[in-house]
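As agreed, record minuted below.
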Amino acid sequence: MSSDSKGSRLPGFYNLTLKERMKLLAGTGHLTPEELAALSGAAGLTPDQADHMVENAAGVYALPLGIALNFIVNGRDVLVPMVIEEPSVVAGASFMAKLARTGGGFIAQTDSPVMIGQIQVLDLADVYAARLALLEHKTQLLAEAAEIDPVLQRLGGGPCDLEVRLIENSPVGPFMVIHLLYDVRDAMGANAINTACERLAPRVEQITGGRVLLRILSNLADRRLARARCTIPLSSLAFDEYHAEDVCDGIISAWAFAAADPYRAATHNKGIMNGVDAVVIATGNDWRAIEAGAHAYAARSGRYTSLSTWGKDAQGNLVGTLEMPMAVGIVGGATKVHPAARAALRLMGVQKAGELAEIIVSVGLAQNLAALRALVTEGIQRGHMSLHACQVAIAAGADGEMIARLAEQLVAEKTIRIDRAEEILQEWKAK
């Protein structure tokens, strides 16, 4: 598929001007002129649209949107939009995707889009008897929840199970939690889940004799996991003075550090989320929910650890995997309201929420590899220096061609500070 006019290999894309990149995307049919305008900000989210999305709207806020190249996910070439302010993330993900292409790209898979709604029941005379009573009425409760959204039912979604948990060691004493498992199809699902929980609350009180308090979804969407794996041929890992075997062993050792130590795991997983969040934001999904679910999942054993794994196959090639909750949608919410989010989904060509989740988890794995590779070889800062220097140059007052010139000098001096940038600008003005 890499030979397709809509492939994700766009050699020289980085060296093009912004206008040339947009022209290329339009010329290859990736996006329409209207969609490009939405991504460029020329026809993006308006203040009037924002006023209908949040309270007390006073404007809109823009972030850079880059295109990650080279991705093959389940045999399909994908250009991936990423919204992020941090330098080197888009480039890092793109280059790791290029390495992964040599091993067939990313293989990804998702569970059914089942979310969990929680109903907390307090003031129970006998939590054990109440649990059994609820289970006896499971069929009736699921039938009642199914009446809420007949359209979702026709699409194959809706309530699919009901579980009851007892929380015995609580500061307020024992209470019960009902888990309503709900297939939300191509939606993120928060509204559907919350509505269903609200609907069942009175009936739950009748059955149990207790008092329902919270009725809300859980962002630990561990029934809705996404997984990705990739194989990097050993020969692809060598560069400059770094031997392939040393790079491979270094990446595995760095991962082992994160697997064993929560202080390292936090930063390790943050690198994964650099890639994940950037695509989630670009598509108008709830990145706070994804973050919460990811970190809770990383601590599911009782100890916070790495979300990814890295090791070797029988041939000595580097193999990586990533598994995490991925509750994203392509219908409803900002995904339909925000013009740039719609254009981002169109750019990736996704037709199902599961496809989007598979792309996102693949980007997370690629970004994890980029960070690990940098850490065990040339250091994390080298990739950041050039773009960070440009930001410092702009902050110091440089504009036009002077930005690149000043950034180049800061990098050469290895002193990327705003005070030094201001000094250089003053020196140039004095000449």
The two ends are 55 Å apart (CA to CA). Residues 114-218 form a domain with the Alpha-Beta Plaits fold (CATH 3.30.70.420). The longest strand covers residues 158-167. Residues 31 and 346 are 7 Å apart (CA to CA).
